[in-house]
Write a structure and sequence with these properties.
By secondary structure, this protein is an alpha+beta fold. Strands 13, 14, 15, 16, 19, 20, 21, 22, 23, 24, 25, 26 and 27 form a 13-stranded mixed sheet that branches. It has a 6-stranded antiparallel beta barrel with strand order 5-7-10-9-8-12. A two-stranded antiparallel ribbon has the order 1-2. Helix 15 (577-596) links the parallel strand 23 (560-565) and strand 24.
């Protein structure tokens, strides 16, 4: 069985072929001499087997002092001319498809040469590499043209250097047809024949199929470790252009982490990249340790995509990875202590409480596949749903997790008066509102009464209060006072403040617990003003306590991931004191989150509406399909990937995470790791 043999596992839930572990052929067992032989064979496309054998034997006879040169010659000759028929060892069906194991076994290892797409050519344009770019053109053979994809990854072996074998790792940046023979196909007669079908539309032999390579790096070895460096060498004319089948080459070439939090599988044009390893797919991980700084979640993440692109499905899969049993982050106060994170989810559509439940569609075969790539799955048992008690509203949502009611105490407004300052207030009305609130809370303390929204309303509506502020002291103009009465004293607030439930400030230990998922659904509330108030209060509690030196110890000593769906609603640069305050708080939280153990996970379909000061602090951007030009420009990714965004299919995404890897396309899992319906 060759190394290209796959079998279909119909029960794994992935809908793709799986490589059998017993069939895998990797180069892990090859000696350095064997690797050198493979590298040398890549250079001889189009030459006779005799000349190949003689030349390589001479080249390798001095590579291994303990090996008899005659034995090398015999074994090279056996591999080149005895094992493979035909004078051209790289041609079509009779071409080189593997290299015999020189250790004496009967196994074969994949030969990149037999899999070559074509060769580097100087017949179209000179080869050129500069500090500003490169021009490397390749000719693709007829039988491999259908396999070439824009954006695909290839390698080009260099002539051997004193430091050992090296390969150019590149991306196919342009594909082009041009004529093999000079002819005029732009005329009526030719066009008519083609349209009428009198001749075959195209004979591939009559055309050159060219690729233009964008160098990414040079791959080389130092001992047993594969490394990469900037492109500082030019490949030779006629060098083979090879598809990348080695997982380690791909990971090194694209600077992909070997481990971390699973986000998806590397793909090109929606087709998952396959290798000769097991599993054949290349998992994309987000760095989640302290080897190169803090875990990247504390540099913040953004998931953006239009409606219907699978944002919620993908987000559930990603957030589930953070809640793995072994995932722990260290505390700022004591780096020796590590805790599991608390995931706080603001859930406007009542979708994320299902993270509590297992997905019954995940079978045993799929579980084995997920385990093989260290993908966490299954419901998070320690999930709680926190519902605000609102007069006239009752949560009857999807959550099967334990539900805990809470209310917002009006005392919270004392240090956060902007909570009541809606966007319609003028500057004079804002100042008047803050003055009335300060005097009311001072009076409540002096009289020993518990501050409440109803008490504040009575205070403002009292004719004596109005007379004092508008006539006796003149602190508030009468028209401004009237505006405050109409806009701030909104009867809606009576439904949310000081209800018959525990105050949210009294249950912080239940909300912010390491290893817990705390979900705040708001869909059941009809008033958008109340929904926004709840989200703003929870966001403020987290940010203020994390950034304050005297903040709540439970919050300060717990790593927190704050996932905010419809983030554009709360983090947009709109007019009004509420917007200004929350933008200011979150901009500071984004800057300080790394050292305070606060990671922001923003989800939106309108990234262009998120304040730029916050957006530029986000290190990892996961971009699904977007059709809005302003939204595409806002995510600020390289142009060659930007143009692909409107064509991404459901589940496909572009990852831009400079501190994690090069920009790549990945495809998410076809199955949700938790319940999703």
């Amino acid at each position: 069985m060759t190394s290209d043999t796959f079998y279909d596992d119909p029960g794994d839930g992935f809908g793709d072929d799986i490589f059998r572990p017993e069939d895998q052929d990797t180069d892990d067992d090859l000696s350095e001499l064997e690797k050198e032989l493979e590298h040398e064979l890549n250079k001889y496309q189009g030459q006779s087997s005799g000349s190949v054998s003689e030349d390589i034997s001479v080249r390798l006879s001095g590579k291994d002092p303990g090996t008899d040169p005659g034995n090398i010659s015999e074994r090279v000759s056996g591999n080149v001319s005895g094992k493979y028929s035909g004078d051209d060892v790289f041609s079509g069906a009779s071409g080189l498809s593997g290299i015999a194991d020189l250790s004496g076994g009967n196994e074969t290892v994949p030969s990149a040469a037999g899999d070559a797409y074509g060769i580097v050519t100087v017949g179209i344009a000179p080869l050129e590499i500069t500090d500003l770019g490169a021009e490397i053109v390749g000719y693709i053979t007829v039988n491999r043209r259908s396999d070439v994809r824009l954006g695909g990854y290839v390698t080009v072996p260099y002539d051997a250097s004193s430091s050992g074998p090296e390969d150019l790792f590149a991306r196919i940046g342009k594909i082009r047809y041009c004529q093999q023979y000079i002819s005029d196909d732009a005329n009526e007669i030719h066009a008519g024949r083609m349209i009428a079908g009198q001749k075959s539309r195209i004979s591939e032999d009559d055309y050159k199929f060219l690729v233009y390579l964008d160098p990414i790096c040079i791959l080389y070895r130092k001992g047993n470790t594969r490394l990469r460096r900037m492109t500082d060498r030019i490949p030779s004319p006629n060098a083979s252009i090879l598809p990348v089948r080695d997982k380690d080459m791909i990971r090194t070439g694209l600077n992909l982490p070997q481990s971390g939090l699973f986000l998806g599988h590397l793909s090109v044009g929606g087709e998952i990249v396959r290798t000769h390893a097991y599993p054949p797919t290349v998992a994309y991980y987000l760095r989640n340790d302290y080897t190169a700084g803090d875990p990247l979640i504390f540099r913040h993440m953004l998931v953006c995509g239009s409606t219907g692109t699978g944002k919620t499905f993908l987000t559930k899969n990603i957030l589930r990875q953070f809640m793995g049993d072994d995932n722990r982050y260290r505390l700022r106060a004591d780096h020796a202590v590590r805790k599991r994170p608390c995931l706080v989810l603001m859930d406007p559509q009542d979708e994320y409480s299902q993270i509590f439940e297992d997905n019954p569609e995940i079978g045993e075969d799929t579980k084995r596949r997920l385990d093989a790539e260290n993908i966490a799955f299954g419901g998070v048992e320690d999930t709680r749903t926190f519902t605000a008690k609102v007069t006239g509203e009752k949560y009857r949502g999807r959550s099967l997790a334990e539900q805990i009611e809470f209310t917002i105490p009006f005392s919270f407004v004392e240090k956060n008066p902007w909570i009541l300052e809606v966007s319609e207030l003028t500057d004079n009305q804002k100042m008047g509102t803050e003055l009335l609130l300060a005097d009311y809370f001072r009076s409540a303390k002096d009289t020993g009464t518990v501050p409440a929204y109803s008490g504040f309303r009575d205070f403002v509506e009292d004719p004596a209060t109005k007379q004092y502020y508008t006539e006796e002291s003149g602190k508030i103009h009468e028209s401004s006072y009237g505006g405050i009465t109409r806009k701030v004293l909104n009867r809606t607030y009576e439904r949310i403040f000081d209800q018959d439930a525990p105050a949210v400030t009294d249950i912080l230990g239940k909300i912010f617990k390491d290893g817990r998922v705390s979900v705040f659904p708001t869909e059941y509330i009809s008033s958008s003003r109340i929904r926004d108030l709840i989200v703003l209060v929870i966001m403020t509690i987290i940010v203020d306590n994390k950034l304050s030196t005297s903040g709540n110890e439970t919050i300060k000593n717990t790593p927190i991931i704050l996932a905010l769906d419809e983030a554009h609603r709360y983090l947009s640069k709109a007019e009004g004191i509420q917007s200004e305050k929350i933008i200011s708080k979150f901009a500071e939280a984004a800057k300080q989150g790394r050292k305070e153990g606060l990671g922001l996970f923003l989800i939106t379909q309108d990234p262009q509406d998120i304040e730029k000061e916050i957006l530029k602090q986000i290190n990892t951007k996961i971009v699904l399909n977007l059709s809005n030009d302003a939204a595409i420009k806002a995510v600020n990714i390289p142009a060659e990937y930007e143009k692909r965004i409107p064509y991404l299919k459901k589940g496909q995404m572009i990852i831009h995470s400079p501190d994690n890897s090069d920009v790549v396309e990945i495809t998410g899992l076809p199955v949700c790791t938790v319940m999703h319906k």
